[in-house]
Amino acid sequence: MALPSLNGMRAFEAAARLGSVKDAAEELHLTPSAISRHIRALERNLGQDLFERGFRQITPTIRGSYYARSLSEAFEAIWRATDDVSLADGPTHSRTQRVRVLCVPAVLNLWLADRLPNFRKLHPAVELEISTSGKRANFDLAIVDEFVYKAGPALTLLIPLVLTPVCAPSLLEGPVPLRSPADLVNHHLIHECESMRWRRWLEQEGVLDTTPKSSTTLDDCTLIMREAINGAGIALADTMMAQDFLQQGKLVAPFDARHTYPAGIYLHQRRSIGNKPGTGLFQDWLLSEVEDHKRVMAIT
């Protein structure tokens, strides 16, 4: 049989890899309806459905998964071959080693930023361009936070969100005791966007009444950490938010208890960066830093 339309194969492969028609549209610079039309045309050409379609979600069929993997490998080979030819056209040192990185603000401000000087010292020829907003498809690498159930096959888990209460050392010496997790509700609790994280954590510790004496809701993790450092209340922080402040003694963890939240920090790698100068260096360095973080914070 004749090969199907290349547009249809590209649309299907991107939607299957990203787990989303919308994300596939962003990557290919098309509209979601155009992606859907291409996929439907491909399915008619092949004589079978490639996706099981539910409410606002798509799941490849068994044959669809096989086809998507095969197409991904084929497109990757094409991208790599193109990069190899491009590299052969001129000396490597004349090619820019700029790496575009998208990073969620909390990770950048509270963890990554203070580690970047070490990367620049190790790799002075690599120029980093880091942003905290934009479309993942427009960046070489994207460090993002996402709920587990929303993380598609295009995302690689760097670290799960492991939460523990943190506060200023002065609160441990204050008039309101912190002998057990049940004592937390007698303090001012600082919420990140909503109260679910605190309620879930307290319930996991067997606390029945999870309503705090008072609370504040903030949507900026850096501000949350500053509030906790200044003694304004107790924050529920993930290990990346808290690591440096705990090591500096600006914050303390009153309890050893830690619980995993159904979300994590993920890495998204844009297609066609296999041979791009600098990208592999930054990715390897980042993975090494994450492993060091896990070791220091005793995350298995």
Cα-based radius of gyration, to the nearest Å: 23 Å
Q: Assign the CATH superfamily of the largest domain.
A: Periplasmic binding protein-like II
Indicate the overall shape. Answer: globular
Counting helices, strands and paired strands, the structural category is alpha/beta
Number of domains: 3
Question: Segments where pLDDT lies below 50 for 5+ residues?
Answer: none
Largest sheet: 8 strands, mixed
Strand order of the largest sheet: 4-3-5-10-6-9-7-8
Instruction: Give the proportion of residues in helices.
Output: 40-55%
CATH architecture of the largest domain: 3-Layer(aba) Sandwich
**What separation lies between the terminal Cα atoms?**
50 Å
Tell me about this structure.
This protein is of the alpha/beta class. It has 11 helices and 10 strands. It has helices at residues 6-18, 21-28, 32-46, 62-88, 105-112, 116-122, 169-172, 196-204, 221-229, 239-248, 279-296, and strands spanning 51-54, 57-60, 98-103, 127-131, 141-147, 155-166, 188-192, 214-218, 234-238, 259-269. Strand 7, helix 8 and strand 8 form a beta-alpha-beta unit. Helix 1 (6-18) crosses helix 2 and helix 5 (105-112) packs parallel to helix 10. The relative contact order is 0.14. GO terms for molecular function: DNA-binding transcription factor activity; sequence-specific DNA binding. Keywords: DNA-binding, Transcription, Transcription regulation. This is LysR family transcriptional regulator.
